[in-house]
Amino acid sequence: MALLPLLDNLLAYPPQTVPGNAVFMVSTPDSVPQALLHNLKHNKVLHERNFLLTVRTGEVPYVAENERLTITELNLRFTRITADYGFKESPGMGNIMKAARLQGCELALMETSFFLSRDSLHIAGNTPESHMNRWRSRFFKWLYKNSTPVTDYYRIPGNRVVEMGSQLDF
Fold this sequence. Notes:
Distance between the termini: 22 Å
Radius of gyration: 18 Å
Order of helices and strands: HEHEEEHEHHE
Number of helices: 5
Strand order of the largest sheet: 3-4-2-1-5-6
Largest sheet: 6 strands, mixed
Number of strands: 6
Shape: globular
Structural class: alpha/beta
């Protein structure tokens, strides 16, 4: 879903607003984060300030601190933050938020809620329509289940995270 039409719709028809900041992580900057859609659908609220965070890893080993963040105001309630890192660097949410504060964003780690999408995989029966046979699908599910959680990778405090999930059928 395209981001800008949704943001225009939210300004025209605003949902209930709650105080505070919300960070929605999104891999594609111009698309709507799934966690935002789930939050609007199920909780029917929007925070006063919402940040759409994309973290990109480049093909260089390091990115200079002064080139790390790009911050774009999208409207009164939404700001896009893009954080660029080199392949030898480990992004941490504390460092990202500190860099954002230096550029004028009022973000404090312990005053911000992080909304993350979490998908669970469901493997359908071994049918001719299935593109993966049973051992491949089980192996993929095992790899997915044992991957590093986003909260650990970005060092986000667990008491600040809200995970919104959906089920993916294979």
